[in-house]
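Subject: Sanity check before I submit

Could someone independently write out the structure tokens for this chain? I want to compare against mine line by line before I put it in a report. The sequence has 682 residues.
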Amino acid sequence: MNLGTDQELEAASGQLLRNPLGRRLVAARTRFGPSPGNVSVEWFDFSRMQGGEVPSWFRADKFRDDMLRALNASNSNFDIKNDYSIAAKAVDHTSDNGLYGELEAKPESGLLEVATSNVYQDAHSEQIPLARIRSAGPLSIKTMSNGVSDEEARELAEKILARSSLGLASENSPCLDKCEKETRDFRYKLAIAHYGLMGSLESKASVGISQSVMGKAAAELRRERSRAAERERAAALGLRPDCATGTAYPPVATPRGGGRGVVAMAAALPAAAPCPPADEPSSGGLAEALGSKDNGGVDFSTLEMRYFSDAPGSDGVQYSYTAQPAAPGLQQDMDSGLDALTNSVADLRAWLVLDPSKFWVNLNPTEPDRIMDSDLGRTNAGRALLEADLEMKRTEGRLLDPHTEFGARYWKELTGSSGNSCYSSRLWIVPGDVQVREDGASLYILKSSLAVNAKSQHIEGLPQSCNPDPQSDARSEQLEQTMVVPKIAEAVNTAPEYAPLRRAFLARIVAQWIRKRHQEGHSTSFDKLIDSGDLGSAKLQSAWRPRQVFDSYVHSIESGEFTYDQTTQDGNTTVTSTMVFGGVDFSKLDVKRLSAAQMDEVYPRLPQIVKASKERPASAANGSIWLGETTAAPSSSLWSKSTDAVRDFAASRSGIVVMLLGALVLVTFGIRSGSGGRRTRS
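---
Independent answer below. Compare away.
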């Protein structure tokens, strides 16, 4: 195609957006920022491995989950050191059947999507995901079967990679002298322009064409999202989107004195109102951070609700989140903030409408019918608890690897002079030290640590079961509690993979405070929701089920993921087995209440910081950033409305200012299912 005129470039950009692969490529370009270098997107279908191609013990779903974690890991064990960004996520058929159709993938296959960008250095963006899978694949395979050698694992990983490489979309076709050979296994390929040989006239022309087409396509995609957001908002709020800015507002003053704030609840108000003057106050700190080009310099993966105020009849519901400053070079987009906000709010609703006696999960391989309460199992809160429980077992598994310094020390202590040991335990997460300051209708969450408990316990009939020895068990339990549990507790309270659990726990603390005020006779904005059992918008819309996590755990046990073979110095083989089961129990929560003086001693000037955060991001002495907002009190009748529009609506800047001013009541529009991949720098 000749792309010498604007009309021809417009036609090419439209063609790119109409193709499901191309549309994902354009979305990746907008996600990675204005100058990400070369961008590509790859799709893998590990379910294509069938019959005699792989051993019977190979699990495609586990391999995909392991690769998802490895691709998104901030630290990895392979050699590419260039300046690149990567984001991986699972894509199911219901979320993008057009993509599945284009790739001719089966609806049940469960595709893995990997978007990558780099700054034109040694490794190309198309090569980077392949390198990570080649590095992490053998490790995943070896957890499925103890009898696989390193060489066999590498060979099987290479076979899986070749068979599963399904689709590739790139701005320029893979260059002939660099990565054309490496990407030959992809069955479906899309590129804006043919690249040819590096440094050739053809390659230079290819880059110019792709940049022109991509620029127009990205601009059109943003316009599409903005128009869709406006239509969705107009339909949901009953307001007219005819202002010069494209933003509609309710016809009454808002709680903060007539400014733009707090219109998420405007569906209860009459429609048709003029736009407010441009010089009226802006939104609060949360919307300001989400709406800024650099996300306000905030790392939204660390977002946590730490302040909540509910005084019906006054200024409505007020709240503030804390977050850590974004590290230099961190690439993130609005989705990371939306995931944290919507899930946090959905968790609050779940904790309010369900009875606290249901707030537990259990991963015991002999109890498939007692994984968790069925209602909790339909919520994001339940998923956060159960997935954190499985992650905790894997955290311990990584700690106890005898090939690490810590693991070698542990096994030496555990086995003693005999060189043999068999030990299993119940390991579970519970609320730890919780400190709050209650000031009338306001709650400050000052500390919210989680604790990990361990107790020796055996289950008969499992592959790693053994004859219990009370004295040996007592010594092993003490060793686990003193040596291993503190490290696991540290991970639970700080590691990124446990962030959903920590956010769910903070929502649990807020919900208990609301319950307590309700029981004491105070009027709250949530009286009709408490113990109603009405999950409403907190109900997960994805295909996730608790049994999936349970099955993954049982498979890990059966395949020997928690069994280690090692050779002692005298040449004898030592086989030690450990199995961990347990759960997460949030049913009981003890809170320590601090006085104003005690709070000020540890957190100086916190009320002033929280107050300031309602207008703009405010920094605390410990370096955290506070992001606050005020919204009208939620009406329970509105909390069940659909919010599949949240992601699209917030894609426009005007959408952010309108929707996210009232982030607490994002549940008015429902809860989004799934989550985007976490983006990391190499």
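---
OP: Matches mine. For the report I'm noting this point. The longest strand covers residues 421-439.
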